[in-house]
Write a structure and sequence with these properties.
By secondary structure, the chain is of the alpha/beta class. It is built from five helices and five strands. It has a five-stranded parallel sheet, sandwiched between helices. The longest helix has 30 residues.
Length: 151
């Protein structure tokens, strides 16, 4: 099955990318996988404090991805797969793509202005030719109406 892998965080560009991927999946009989990244916490001298900080970050990521998945199901009827991982974003995405050869496209949202984001810059830059699937960069400035028309 054609699967669109969408990396989300708490910015508007990620919401736009998820909407685009869901619409494409609906039209092509595909699926959506949502990847939520838990940022690495700065090293803290006391292990219990660091463990608490990591758990709080994971809970925030899980809540964000649950909310995104609920909106996706309600709006499109597409039931996404959900993955939450901690680590360097580029490394995590590479590992997931290596583990899941059925991914048909990596879908990333680019910020509406300024720096497009770490993942977009990386995968559209130095590693553009090394991906095992196409990269879809969805401009964060697109309205829902435009997304619906394009997808």
């Amino acid at each position: 099955m054609r699967t669109y892998l969408v990396v989300i965080d708490d910015n508007e560009a990620a919401r736009v990318a998820l909407r685009f991927a869901a619409r494409r999946a609906t039209r092509t009989g595909g699926a959506v996988e949502i990847l939520a990244l838990v940022p690495q916490q700065e090293f803290v001298q006391w292990g219990a404090v660091q463990a608490t900080m990591e758990e709080e970050a994971r809970l925030r990521a899980e809540a964000m991805v649950t909310q995104a998945a609920s909106a996706l199901i309600e709006e499109t009827g597409v039931m996404p797969s959900i993955t939450v991982r901690q680590g360097d974003p580029v490394t995590v995405v590479r590992e997931l793509l290596a583990e899941q050869p059925h991914v048909a496209a990596l879908v990333l949202g680019a910020a509406a202005s300024g720096n497009p984001g770490k993942l977009v810059s990386h995968f559209a830059g130095i590693d553009a030719g090394l991906l095992p699937c196409p990269l879809m960069i969805i401009p964060g400035s697109l309205s829902d109406e435009v997304l619906d028309r394009l997808s």
